[in-house]
Known about the structure:
The complex is a heterodimer of chains A (126) and B (510). Chain A has 126 residues and is of the alpha/beta class.
Amino acid sequence: MPKVLIIDDVADNIDLLSRRLVRRGYEVLGSAGALEGIARALAERPDIILMDIKMPLIDGHEATRRLKADPATRSIPIIALTNHAMAEDRAAALAAGADDYESKPVDLPKLLEKMDALLAPKTTEL
Amino acid sequence: MSEFPAAPDSQRRAWFTYVRQELTTSAQALAEAARGFAAKCAGSDFAAASAQLVDRADVYRTQVAQFLETSFESAPPPARKILRHDLRGAVGYIVSALDDIEESTTAERLSELRPELPATLSVAHKILQQLGSLLKESTDGSPHPVEDSLARLPAAIASAVASADLAAPGRILIVDDNEFSRDLMAKQLRQQGHAVETVAGAREAQARLSDSGAPPVDVVVSDVLMPGITGLDLLKWLKADPLFWPIPVIMVSALGDEDGVLACIGAGAEDYLTRPVRADLLRARIAGGLEKKRLRDREVENRARIDRLVRAIFPPAVVDEWRQHETIRPKRHEKVGVLFTDIVGFTTWCENYRDRPELVVDTLQALIRQFEDVARRFGVQKIKTIGDAFMAVAGLTERDPNPALTLLQCAGALIDATKSHPAGWAIRVGIHVGPVVTGILGQTQFSFDVWGQTVNAAARMESNGLAGRVTLSAEAWVDVEGVAEGTLREAEVKGLGAIALWDFDHFRPA
């Protein structure tokens, strides 16, 4: 049962997305802020992180950089999420170290496909 | 990051106008769709979720209004951020929440939620597209060309915006106690070629409009809230006056003063604007107002033309009765003076011009016109001409204490007019007073007419008269004998037998 960590400053967004993921069998954790999210990732070692980009204080790019800089969390795949995906955002997200990118509101089948792709190698390793 | 389009002003305004309208309309559509969906969900397990969606849609609507009010035009960089994160985020949540509801229920239950759920979802998706296309061009960092947006404008909107620009200029009166707002509006309207006058209050506006020497005002723009006489009072005053009602009035109200707006529209305001007044809206409202004014002017002109025609056919009192009751009832008048004139030897004269009938008509026409002028001068009502005979009455439609005297004085002027007429004619004039019945016979080619024995008697006075003289019945003479000298004679009058009649000689010196 893959463990997903959603980092988003808007609690409602976490609720909604987690409800939908739980319905599909995922175990879901949520963090309403970048700092809390980084700590949670360290403590819980999720299988994948869904990272909102637009957050106050520390944004998703910075959080991604920090997680990818820490050997303890570097291997956790991160999918960046933002409103209205634009090419420059995709580039910025990938430059920060995110593994993939999806725009909000999420098209769940598409997001699941990307999550599966990122989770697959790990599963075959086991 | 690119900003909102920098382009020629009119295009820029058109673009903003379009976007404003689109965002506002879709936000409203979303709120309504969400309400429809919530109504469908009432009492079900989705009641709470759907009620929350209604709240979200309302919040979105408020956000859009705030955005359009504050950031959209004035502050491009924050505008982008708001569009992208706040507005898209809000609608995105609604989409996800609807997806969530869709996923969490059975196919059967889902079909019960049709068509409200997919309808709401579809509106929300359309809004995301709208917001996306507003942000679109910055994907590759290129500016967002206004021309492109304009090309996407529905043709009707584009042409409406353009025609507001091209509207023919008019004379605008701005009534506003706030000097800055007054000057700003005046400046904007002058730039579009309108003649603009400004006043600081309703009382001044009334004075200006009532000044018959000043050029007429086409549109009034008035503030609602003013000290003293309010804009609403001014509006009511204008609409109550037949002279001013055609002037369209555009009211300027404070933002959110919906009661004021309602009262103004109820009182006949053409349109309203809210503060701060947007230049493009002001321009469009003025264009609409001018258009209406022109239509009304044409209407007023038509009505005046009909009025002139009707008044030429009927006496004023009759016209007024017609206006009020849409019919003319036959009416008996107890004491009316009736006057007949006839040209002596007219038939013989005509024989000389047998081959030139138009000359006969033209010559007679010239005399009758003079008669009409004379009659008007004496307050005498012309009834008709019968061949070369001219019939007029006094004391019928205008109160006249002595119709016989009025007619006698008028008769003197008629005789003088005939004497100065080149044809060298002489007329006989007959006058009688007594009761008559007035009315209109038939419904086509009708004319106002006078009937009764009095009319016959007056005609007999004339036919028994003398060339260049006035002949009065004994009844008429009684009323003038205090001031007139005359010669009594007896005549055998057809239908009346032997009667006394008076040939007028002259007025006694006062």
